[in-house]
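Database export, one record per block. Field names are fixed; values are copied verbatim from the stored entry.
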Amino acid sequence: MRQTKADDAEVKRLAKSDERLTEPTLANVDALVCDSLVVGVFSDVRPLAGLLGVIDWRLCGRLSRLFEQGIVTGSDGERILMPTLGRVPAPRLFLYGWGPSGAANQKAAERVSAMIGIVDAASAKTVAFGFPEPCRGLLQVAAAQVQQGLGGRLVALFGADLVSPTL
């Protein structure tokens, strides 16, 4: 799915309207103040990119190794909780599998609800949320749902669509 100029304009509008929309950079991840990170992951996109790529860098490739070993797959509905061992400001990292990237928008609302449910069940007080990369328009489809579902607990909403050129 290709982004159009209208999609790009909508992402820029979203970014200007809400300071919680955040570019996935080392500096922005290092500046997080939250108790939980919840990040979506596709089963067919490697190497890890966007927020997961930054987190993997901070974890010295630990996520990449888990994927290579088949311990984590990104299959639809997969749920993983792992500690960040102080290498990322949030002590808990929740990964949620979105399955193949080609069907990302088809079940976006259901997947976002599941991700919010994960942090609700964990009694997370402050949350950074990351869409799977490449998110190809997921910000337009589901950003409002994330913001409504997490409310004041949302400290950052990550998506590389904020800065990536049109594919």
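Remark 1: Helices lie at 5-17, 26-30, 50-58, 62-68, 108-121, 138-150.
Remark 2: Strands lie at 21-22, 36-42, 79-83, 92-99, 127-130, 154-158.
End of record.
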